[in-house]
From TrEMBL:
CDD domains for the chain: KDPG_aldolase (cd00452)
Transmembrane segments: none
Organism: Muricoccus nepalensis
Primary gene name: eda
Assembly and oligomerization: Homotrimer.
Catalytic function, reaction form: 2-dehydro-3-deoxy-6-phospho-D-gluconate = D-glyceraldehyde 3-phosphate + pyruvate
Enzyme Commission designation: 4.1.2.14
Pfam entry (one): Aldolase
Single GO MF descriptor: 2-dehydro-3-deoxy-phosphogluconate aldolase activity
InterPro entries: Aldlse_KDPG_KHG (IPR000887), Aldolase_TIM (IPR013785), KDPG/KHG_AS_1 (IPR031337), KDPG/KHG_AS_2 (IPR031338)
Name of the protein this chain belongs to: 2-dehydro-3-deoxy-phosphogluconate aldolase
Pathway: Carbohydrate acid metabolism; 2-dehydro-3-deoxy-D-gluconate degradation; D-glyceraldehyde 3-phosphate and pyruvate from 2-dehydro-3-deoxy-D-gluconate: step 2/2
SUPFAM superfamilies (alphabetical): Aldolase (SSF51569)
Family of this protein: Belongs to the KHG/KDPG aldolase family.
Gene3D superfamilies: Aldolase class I
């Protein structure tokens, strides 16, 4: 029997998590609608832009079927924002001890970023066994995930960073990978030009390539 892990279940259901950096909040709803129409429903809306929080709010209010996570959560105040907005979960590219403590206190489903065995151990010590390996490709990709799986069989990963549509399937084939993340589903130029049909088509193709859950 494995320990129940709702965050891993959320990500496993998602398979693919697009990392969205939204510059203009007005783009948020059509972008999310296109992704959801293509079958990509779990969306990480990053706080990298000023429009991020408003974008997350608009998607939750106006796009049925979208499951919104807040991304680039770097500090306690960002977790508070996640709570205020009412998003389903929060993601970070890394994790400080303060952030892990705050997330453990808050109880919001939280996916910390890790890049080393020690960081994974620090996250797991506070109960976070589902993590984002970031930046996944640059850290060794599939080989790194296999290597981490040996001493940490309980850990579940959402590798993100440098993953392409072509490579995604190989990552998803690993038993310790619950989902993959990446920005390839929403190229900045297509978002800026409002090419929603192209984004929907790519989302659909990516989900088909990802295979069954
Ligand atoms: O902003 C965050 O919170 C992050 O975690 C970083 C993102 O996951 C990567 O920037 C996505 O990487 P690419 O798919 O290579 O573009």
């Amino acid at each position: 029997m494995t320990t129940p892990n709702p965050t891993a279940d959320l990500l496993r259901a998602a398979r693919i998590v697009p990392v969205l950096t939204i510059r203009d909040a007005a783009q948020a709803v059509p972008l999310a609608r296109a992704l959801v129409a293509g079958g990509v429903t779990t969306l990480e809306v990053t706080l990298r832009t000023e429009a991020g929080a408003k974008a997350a709010e608009a998607i939750m209010a106006e796009v049925p079927g979208a499951v919104v996570g807040l991304g680039t959560v770097l500090a306690r105040r960002d977790l508070l924002l996640a709570r205020q907005l009412g998003v389903t979960f929060a993601f970070s590219p890394g994790a400080t001890p303060e952030l892990l403590d705050a997330a453990a206190e808050d109880g919001i489903p939280f996916v910390p970023g890790i890049a080393t065995a020690s960081e994974l151990m620090a996250a797991a010590a506070r109960g976070f066994t589902t993590v984002k390996l970031f930046p996944a490709a640059q850290l060794g990709g599939i080989g790194a995930l296999k290597a981490l799986g040996a001493p940490f069989p309980e850990a579940r990963f959402c590798p993100t960073g440098g993953i392409s549509e072509e490579e995604m399937r190989d990552y998803l084939a690993l038993p310790n990978v619950v989902a993959v993340g990446g920005s390839w589903l929403a190229p900045a130029a297509e978002v800026a030009a409002g090419e929603w049909e192209a984004i929907e088509a790519r989302a659909r193709r990516s989900m088909e390539r990802a295979g069954p859950r």
